[in-house]
User: Which sequence fits this backbone?
């Protein structure tokens, strides 16, 4: 994701990828008169929110002398919205049975585009926050933040997909979400833990691959000075 030395601009790439993905949905609506995948556009908007927050924190909170309360409040809000980015992968649950028709293949490729874009947005926003934490607290705490964020993100994806809570609920109705989360032990804890762990290792693997492809090492990134 680095833009040093090769002239690439990840933000421009994300915008173009977003426009392309939205165009896929719009074209499908006009072609089939079916709006069943319109929700993807809203989910994609939510996937952008953590990146916008991380960019704001990088712009206004990168210096240590900035208020710690303001900075970590921003990190908390980012963490609340972070699961929305990789959550797009779970939208494959809406994919209809593949029947060999052109519409089915189109839907599959469209969902793949949204899923990949969600993973990229989430990865890049996490990378920006990891760089900031490393500057303030060093590599070890930045790594703990990295793994902890992915684990909490995995739990958040479960709450969103199966318990139908969203990020706004955690901000406006935190006690309801907490109460629901604490009662999960009555609804099959082994299955819940299995989903969270599988999601955690999946995201860890994907983000590790993306880090390797982007040439990111130990917190290096496009905002390093």
Assistant:
């Amino acid at each position: 994701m680095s833009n040093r030395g090769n002239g690439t601009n990840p933000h421009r790439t994300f915008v173009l990828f977003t426009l392309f993905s939205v165009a896929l949905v719009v074209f499908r609506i006009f072609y089939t008169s079916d709006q069943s995948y319109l929700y993807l556009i809203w989910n994609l908007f939510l996937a952008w929110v953590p990146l916008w927050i991380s960019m704001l924190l990088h712009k206004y909170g990168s210096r240590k002398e900035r208020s710690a309360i303001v900075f970590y409040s921003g990190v908390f809000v980012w963490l609340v919205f972070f699961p929305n980015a990789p959550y797009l992968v779970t939208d494959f649950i809406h994919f209809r049975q593949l029947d060999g028709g052109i519409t089915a293949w189109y839907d599959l490729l469209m969902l793949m585009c949204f899923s990949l874009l969600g993973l990229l947005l989430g990865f890049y926003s996490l990378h920006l926050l990891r760089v900031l934490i490393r500057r303030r607290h060093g590599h070890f705490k930045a790594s703990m933040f990295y793994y902890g964020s992915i684990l909490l993100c995995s739990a958040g994806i479960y709450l969103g997909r199966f318990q139908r809570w969203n990020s706004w609920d955690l901000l406006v109705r935190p006690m309801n979400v907490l109460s629901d989360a604490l009662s999960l032990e009555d609804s099959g804890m082994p299955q819940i833990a299995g989903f969270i762990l599988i999601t955690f290792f999946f995201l860890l693997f994907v983000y590790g691959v993306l880090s390797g492809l982007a040439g990111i090492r130990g917190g290096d990134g496009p905002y390093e000075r």
